[in-house]
Amino acid sequence: MQKLTGVLVSRNKEYIIFYRGNDFVTPKVRKVLVEQQQHAITQQEQEELARLKASDSITPIPKALKNPLVAGTLAETREATSRWGDSLNDELRKKENNCLILAKHTSLLKNMKRKLILAKTKVAKAEMALAKVQEYLSPAELPTDLETVTDEERFLFRRIGLKMKAFLMLGRREVFDGTVQNMHFHWKHRELVKIVVKGKTFEQVKHIAISLEAESGGVLIALDKTTKGYSITFYRGKNYKRPQVLKPRNLLTRRRAMARSIELQRREALNHHISVLRHKIWKLKSQLVRQFISDFIEFNFSMLALLDDALHLCYHHQVQMRAAGRKQDAELLQTVEDDLSSDDDNIQDEGDEAYLQTYGSDDEDDADDDSNEYL
């Protein structure tokens, strides 16, 4: 049965479970599928035979090439060089890299300037929203007739406040009407109330303590730094009377205090973002200035090198001209001397010939005279 049906899953005394499998097909469907597959194979074979016969009957005529092949030849190289220019050397590659770096820094600088302008507009919007929320806040001033507490009482209240387990946690909303209400709830059962502040500096905690003292009417006992944060202890006073309205009307509500906290956080984050952007812009500008100075110095050096080469060429040309002039002068002098020497030789030859002629004529005359006398 396992060979006929499928996979044996489990068996028991009462029943046996077989799994037919994912590829289970009934015999009729299997027969139809096999027939269709054989028909498709035979049809493909017939199409392949027809294609082979048609390809054998057609003889391709190769087209004659109009132009000779120039791939990989010197003519192709020269044509590519004339069209696309010479290959990049180290100097050109360095210049291209410098141009790319300069373009990249310029685009980054423009992008950062755009971000800086956008951040400034967001800061202005945050300032407007914060001012709109602060319109509902009118903080109270410190009373002039504060209840006096002696040093012994202050020391005792401070120790009791640090040991107190019940405390109020001042959150991101800081001072609002609910904070003063919770202080009055604590003062209903005890004389002291301890407020814990986290994530603030000492100056901020001091400002919060002064504002709470003015709004609640209690006496500030101590401001201490603990492991949980800053601890502020308030004393309700000896003549404490619970007010009828526990939430002061001059403070912000819970929702408005949350909105003020969000706007303050947004403004602080934007100011930090602006400072970071300004620092990055300053760095990019300094890099651009250094790049410009280096390019300017390199250009000046190249110009000086070209000027030096030109001066050397002029000097060599002048030296050659002087040498050529001296050579021409020497040749001219030599020709003049040769002419003069040739003239002197001609004059000397003519003198000698004249002397010889005169001497010969004298001798002949003397001889004639002698002969005449002899005769």
Can you summarize this structure?
The chain is of the alpha+beta class and 375 residues long.
Q: State the low-pLDDT regions, or none.
A: 358-375
- Kindly state the number of beta strands: 6
Distance between the termini: 187 Å
Determine Rg (CA atoms, Å).
Answer: 58 Å
Largest sheet: 4 strands, mixed
Q: Please tell me the overall pLDDT.
A: 79
Secondary structure category: alpha+beta
In the residues, how many domains can be counted? 3
Order of helices and strands: EEHHHHEHEHEEH
What topology, given as strand order, has the largest sheet?
3-4-6-5
Q: Helical residue percent?
A: 55-70%
Task: Indicate the proportion of strand residues.
Answer: 5-15%
Instruction: Report the total helices.
Output: 7
Shape: flat
Description:
α3 packs antiparallel against α7. The longest helix is centred in the C-terminal third of the chain and has 121 residues. By secondary structure, the chain is α+β, with helices and mostly antiparallel strands. The strands form two sheets. It has a four-stranded mixed beta sheet with strand order 3-4-6-5, with helices on both faces. It has a two-stranded antiparallel ribbon with strand order 1-2. The protein is built from seven helices and six strands; from the N terminus they run ββααααβαβαββα. It folds into three domains: 41 residues, no CATH class; 132 residues; 101 residues, YhbY-like (Translation Initiation Factor IF3, 2-Layer Sandwich), CATH 3.30.110. A hairpin with a 4-residue loop joins β1 and β2. Keywords: Chloroplast, mRNA processing, mRNA splicing, Plastid, Repeat, Ribonucleoprotein, RNA-binding, Transit peptide. InterPro entries: CRS1/CFM2/CFM3, RNA-binding_CRM, YhbY-like_sf. GO terms for molecular function: mRNA binding. This is CRM domain-containing protein.
